[in-house]
Design a protein that fits this description.
Layout lengths: L8 E4 L7 H9 L3 E4 L4 E4 L4 H11 L6 E4 L2 H14 L8 E4 L2 H9 L16 H5 L11 E7 L5 H8 L3 E11 L4 H6 L7 E3 L3 H13 L10 E3 L2 H10 L4 E3 L5 H13 L2
Parallel strand pairs: 1-2, 1-8, 4-5, 4-6, 6-7, 8-9, 9-10
Antiparallel strand pairs: 3-7
Helix pairs in contact: 3-4, 8-9
Length: 261
């Protein structure tokens, strides 16, 4: 299976600042890689949202559970915390959704609560099953994320009696040059990789706007069963779910997909 990607053309869609390792991994496996970012991250740096962020970070020592939903949330959230807390308070427990987020948090010197039975597939549902998040009545939970997004985590913890706040660090937007790049993309790749549901939604929008319906026929590798299901709803004819959004899991899913073609 190691040679499955040799000569295959793969379209990747990660944000430009995050695609380097993934691109290099695919190229090292022999793939020809095209990159058209379908998501951009805009940090919140001013306005009312910035003031809310600052207040939440200053009160971080009052938090019982700190949950990070993405690598971007780790990068930006830890930057904020390091600015105001040179030594992190002892109170909060830390959690990460997904293997890549866990790795990013640990790279900042922060250990997070994981599940011994499913340490590499910690999606929102798995995280909510952890014993430490069952009896949370009156406890404070701060969820580091971008603006908007899924509400399952917050809704569930509030239903269990927790006091939940969202620390919204960034906005996710469609890059201005995504559609023009796709309109000029005159090849049919062997597979497409996407790393989030919003990336997938943006890709589907651009395919429709660019009048490139053949791209809906290209197999898509997704980071979870949920996103793979969304791919079917958006019109993609074939979607494969990796175990998680980490590079190793995405590569294995891509290799398995193309090995069966």
């Amino acid at each position: 299976m190691n040679n499955v990607l040799q000569g295959k053309r793969i379209l990747i869609t990660r944000p430009e600042h995050q695609c380097g390792d993934w691109l290099a991994l695919l190229q090292s496996a022999g793939a020809r890689v095209d990159s058209i970012p379908m998501l951009a991250i805009e940090p919140i740096e001013k306005g009312p949202g910035w003031q809310v962020l600052k207040a939440q970070v200053l009160d971080f020592d009052q938090v019982d559970h700190a949950i990070f939903v993405s690598r971007n949330a780790v990068q930006l959230g830890c930057d904020w915390l390091e600015d105001y807390w040179p030594q992190l308070p002892q109170g909060p427990r830390y959690y990460a959704i997904g293997a890549a987020t866990t790795s990013a948090l640990r790279s900042r010197g922060i250990e997070c609560v994981t599940s011994e039975s499913i340490p590499d597939t910690m999606d929102s549902e798995a995280l909510l099953s952890l014993p430490s998040l069952q009896n949370v009545t009156g406890q404070r939970v701060l969820i580091f994320r971008g603006s908007g997004g899924r509400t399952l985590m917050g809704d569930t913890l509030r239903a269990r009696g927790a006091r939940v706040d969202y620390c919204e660090l960034y906005r996710r937007v469609l890059p201005a040059d995504a559609l023009p790049q796709l309109q000029q993309y005159n090849v049919q790749p062997d597979a497409i990789s996407v790393h989030s549901g919003e990336t997938l939604t943006n890709l589907a929008h651009c395919i429709q706007q660019a009048t490139r319906p053949a791209l809906f026929e290209v197999p898509v590798v997704c980071p979870s069963v949920r996103v793979a299901g969304l791919a079917g709803e958006l019109g993609f004819q074939r979607a494969t779910a990796a175990r998680n959004a980490g590079d190793a899991a995405m590569l294995a899913a891509l290799q398995a997909l193309l090995a069966n073609d």
